[in-house]
Amino acid sequence: MENESEVKEAVPDYKKRYTYADYVKWDDDTRYELIDGVPYAMSAPSRRHQKILGRLFLQLRNFLKGKTCEVYLSPFDVRLNADTYDDTVVQPDIVVICDAEKLDDAGCKGSPDMAIEILSPSTTNHDRITKFNKYLQYGVREYWIIDPETESLTVHLIRGEDYITRVYIEDSAPVHILDGFAIDLNDVFE
C-alpha cells in the first residue's frame, strides 16, 4: 500500500484553501496556479502566444548566456511566499532570476527579478489585476505584460511600494534589470 503522503489527489475543490504541499499532489492534466490558497486552472495557450513566448525567450536566453541571471519558460513554479504561508504559486510565461539561492529543483522560492505574462482572452484580468498585485506585493522588480492583440508591451518597474508603468508599441524596450539589453519588439510581434 502506498504511503498516504504519496497518494495523488484529484482536481482541487475550489471552495477550499490550499498550500504548495497540496498543489504538488494534484494529479490531473490541468495546470494550476494558487493565489492566496485559491486554485486557478490554466488553459492551453494559443499558437500565437507560443510564437511570442519563443521569440522573447530566445532574445533573453541569448543575452544571458554566460551571465549569472537565468531565464525560464512556463511551466515553472514560482512560490512567491515560500518562506511564510506558501499558498501563492504562479507560473509566469517567462521569469528571470538573478539570485541562484532562490532556485531549487521545483522552481523558484521567492520573487523572481522579472516576470513576463502574455495575455490570452481568458487570462487578461488575472494577469493585469490579480497577478499584478501579487507581483507588487512580493517585490518583483520588473513585470511585463505582452498584449498580442494590440502588439504592445506594458512594463511595470517597482519603485518603493508602487510600480512605474511604461507602454511600448514598436522598436525596442529596455530590460531594466539587465543593463545594456533591450528586447526587439518587431521580432517579437513578427
User: Which of globular, elongated, flat, extended, rod-shaped describes the shape?
Assistant: globular
Name of the level-1 CATH class: Alpha Beta
> Helix count, per DSSP?
4
CATH topology: tt1808, chain A
Order of helices and strands: HEEHEEEEEEEHEEEEEH
User: Fraction of residues in helices?
Assistant: 10-25%
Stretches where pLDDT falls below 50 for ≥5 residues? 1-5
Report the strand count: 14
Shape-level CATH architecture = Alpha-Beta Complex
Structural class: alpha+beta
Rg on CA atoms, Å: 17 Å
The whole-number mean of residue pLDDT values reads 92
Overview of the molecule:
The protein has 190 residues and is α+β, with helices and mostly antiparallel strands. The chain has one domain: tt1808, chain A. The chain contains 4 helices and 14 strands. Strands 3-6-9-10-11-12 form a 6-stranded mixed sheet, sandwiched between helices. A hairpin with a 2-residue loop joins strand 7 (103-104) and strand 8. The relative contact order is 0.13. Residues 1-5 have low confidence and may be disordered.
Question: Which keywords apply here?
Answer:
single chain, 4-stranded mixed β-sheet, 190 residues, 6-stranded mixed β-sheet, alpha+beta, 14 strands, tt1808, chain A, disordered N terminus
Produce the secondary structure layout.
Blueprint lengths: L19 H4 L7 E5 L2 E5 L4 H18 L5 E4 L3 E3 L9 E2 L3 E4 L5 E2 L2 E3 L4 E5 L5 H14 L4 E6 L4 E8 L2 E7 L3 E3 L7 E3 H4 L2
Parallel strand pairs: 4-8, 9-10
Antiparallel strand pairs: 1-2, 3-6, 4-5, 6-9, 7-8, 10-11, 11-12, 13-14
